[in-house]
Structures
1.
Amino acid sequence: MSGTARLEIDGTVYELDTVVGSEGERAIDISKLRATTGYITLDDGYGNTGSCRSAITYIDGDAGILRYRGIPIENLAGRSSFVETAWLVIFGSLPTVEERDRFSALLGESAMIDEVMRKHFHAFPQTAPPMAILSAMINTLSAHDHGVIQIDDDSDMERAAAVLMSKVRTIAAAAYKASVGEPLVYPRYDLKYAENFLHMMFSVPYRNYEPTPEVAAALNLFLMLHADHEQNCSTSTVRMVGSSKANLFASCAAGVCALWGPLHGGANVAAVQMLQQIYDSGMPVSEFVTRVKNRDAGVKLMGFGHRVYKNFDPRSRILKKSVDEVLAQQDKTDSLLDIARELEAAALEDDYFIERKLYPNVDFYSGILLRAIGIPSEMFTVMFAIGRMPGWIANWKELNDDPKGRIYRPRQIYTGPTDQDWAPRGER
Ligand code: SDX
């Protein structure tokens, strides 16, 4: 169903088509605006601009709704695995038994990286940021496996998705092992997705790491909750790069770089660092809240606020519950969790945050959950990238499946110097 919007410019009325999505979202189609009016639109940060039509994920920021292919995240949490959710997000429906078995086998067979690639990890300094290694090594995969560069049919797509999802685990764990001076651990075919990652992260030659079922389930849940999230900064980056017909691996490597920023996927580390600083300083939470409100030196409440959610991020609620369960099962407490809870309670009652509709987002509790699982903080954003890989793959696939797809090339309003001439050096 579509309609018409009327725009009056300099006395002339223009009619523009409107578009309505399956959840009633409405848009004005401005694809012919410049040709008919000579005007472009300007929208800092794209807060009001849709870049595409997509059938993958739906968010209602006011109601705090998140659905993957129409299934609410709450219905998947605790019932669906990360691998099953990845299939849903990438291929559009929950996998049949046959599809699930086929994809799991592909993931198991694709877990190893080329033996030559393993040498790269010891060429990085031990202090190298794992996100830099992740992005570099995802691109390197295409140097070793040309079959993932050219994707011509569904079978190629399925294999490329499995290769990327499986090997990103191995690369992440290898980056960690190299950073702590331990031997890289080979994947095992008999382990499930999360368990295999934890094995490669924490097993050593003289002892295999066996995660408790609760830890494995918590990691599965963490990854599933991060699987996709509409046109966020990193997913839009994957689409931007993919729109030039760059291959899946190059596009997702670019997504890793966008996710790295502290305003995006880097917020899970920044949130835990913020909590740790409050704890180490002994500063009352109320004093920190005051600093945030006074905008002292740009202090923000990391893990709070969201461009789309103006209500609770449904993922933060689920993560908070999982933290409680994992810590209870381990008979542990975490002082940072106590501070997080106090901060959340203070912010939810404070007009400064209420007026700006600032609520905990996915990054507020995710770092505390990763701590409880035993993941070191320098790996937190890498974990986000592993979880988001299905969403990046799904968006790249949706973009490339569109026969009318065009290269992304936004316009601008030029504000620089007008017509200038070159001047000889002595006259500058
Ligand atoms: C993710 O897009 C996605 O879907 C992302 C993500 C995904 O799954 O892909 O959900 C993952 O990136 C979650 C967000 C993680 N980032 C953080 O937690 C960093 C802290 N949050 C902020 O930097 C901020 O809230 C953003 C970046 C998340 C959103 O920024 P916006 O939409 O540009 O909001 P804004 O900066 O315009 O803020 C509006 C107001 C401002 O105050 P005023 O100038 O109007 O007085 O709210 C204030 C901001 O100063 N504000 C905050 C704040 N976030 C916004 N004040 C204190 N602490 C904060 N965290």
2.
Amino acid sequence: MTNAYIRGTGFHVPDRILTNADLEKIVETSDEWITSRTGIKERHIAAKGEAASDLAAAAAKKALADAGMEAEELTHILVATVTPDCYTPACSCLVQAKLGLTHRIAMDLNAACSGFLYGLEQARAIVALKPEAKILLVGAEILTSRTNWEDRTTCVLFGDGAGAVIISGEPAPGTGSGRPAGRILDSLLCSDGSGADLLVISGGASSEPYATGQVVGPSHYIRMKGQDVFKLAVRSMESVCKDILARNGLSVDDVDLLIPHQANSRIIEAVGRKLGVAAERVFINVDRYGNTSAASVPIALAEARQQGRITEGSLVLLTAFGGGFTWGASLVRF
Ligand code: ACO
């Protein structure tokens, strides 16, 4: 089987920053509550008219530059998102157009916050089937388009952004930036639909179709049973990380950097603690971006590479948990 490599990474977030102090003016909350319960200090918010494909295309261009590749070389465009520009066409088709391309294979994936990891495994499978493939995988979200600004239990949590990677098989040129490429060693993906109603956006979809003149209500926005999600997220990410390490004959001591989905610093710290990974080997940037769902892992991966926290030989463990429920882990050796 041809090995798949991450050759470039990049991310893009909107300019506008919404701080906890700004949120204090919108709902009854405080910087102290948000910081102590979530670790989030600020998040980036899309401008009016800015859509998921705009953030995705900007992140894609940075990942291409990092890989030292031209957009024309791409054969596949995969976008993981729960907040696409529209129901149809797919966000990936719009990203293709924004990159000036046509006739590529383009498709969207919906696995909520685990979408990027699901996409990574899709990309690895594509490379195994078509060793010449050059794949753009983006996680892109405008979660604030589905945020209920009257619900303080959810509106403080989310932010907008996009993270992108370029994946291709071997042999292939090194990365443009000179940073090491990362071989995707393995992925372990899971899902369980029995908890679907604990984290859901249903209004306006086929189970709750829009009616002309209908007033938009709470079901059109993210609704979540926070404490249930919290416990499941910790348990699921801990167990999937242990399983993927065990089946690859590795231990937590082999992991140079753990990059968990950035939902909440308390979830991230609990996963690190339960796995026995020292805090300095756990990547956290949720304080500056909030929860960006499918974009969170690729944004964190790109930022970690940019900061020099991933070097030649680093073993990186990625893990995520999200709506569905979906969860998973991937091992990447740089
Ligand atoms: N500001 C001030 N007070 C608040 C706020 C707020 N923004 N939100 C809730 N409260 C109040 C509640 O009303 C409640 O008050 P009460 O005791 O008078 O009823 C009190 O704070 C405690 O509320 P809890 O829901 O028990 O707070 P908890 O400690 O569970 O924290 C939180 C809530 C942060 C949502 C937590 O459950 C959590 O992080 N869950 C994980 C959810 C998550 O991150 N989901 C993202 C999607 S899935 C994923 O990405 C993993």
3.
Amino acid sequence: MPTETSLEKKYKKGIIDQTATYIKSRLEGEGSGHDWWHVYRVWKNAVQIAQQENADLFLVELSALLHDIADWKFHDGNDEVGPMMARAWLENLSVDEAVIAHVCQIIKEVSFKGAGVITKMQTKEGKVVQDADRLDAIGAVGIARTFAYGGSKGREMYNPEIKPIMHLSFDEYKNSKSPTLNHFYEKLLLLKDLMNTSTARKMAEHRHQIMVDFLSEFFREWEGKV
Ligand code: NI
């Protein structure tokens, strides 16, 4: 006879697996760095952090998997679409209302909206998912994603005549046309100090250094100094 706990485990694994398959089919092949493999990496980062921080794994995994179901960057800045789609999916699987409400709240709060815009996560699970998402924006993968995203928006790779700006509002950040390299100064180099959990802060150190090294090499090569 299976115990209640193993039944519950099996139920949760079923929901997670179905959600992963659904998101994979929705986002596969997306070319701007918000594809299935981004979600996959965030999911893996989130599990690592959740285990260290004793967060609720089921909530964390579901939120990580659903966090980019409809990213605001691709829906004219509407950040209501993601939570709505996540809710429809989870209701379809008859997931508990308390779980659905928590997951939707996390998805709504998780996006980075500009250097001067504070997005404070309200729960431990939200903090874990936000950290996991931010970790995937930095380091070697972060560098690759940043250029992929800039390319998809038709932005210049770098233009020494355009200086980085710290966006003070969500609208300013959303409508920014600045070259991709500026994004390192407007967002990516700030992320290390914005991590919510000490586990993610440790993971961010190495990834941060990779970007610092990349930038100094980039500028040297730009002026023919290497
Ligand atoms: Ni994301």
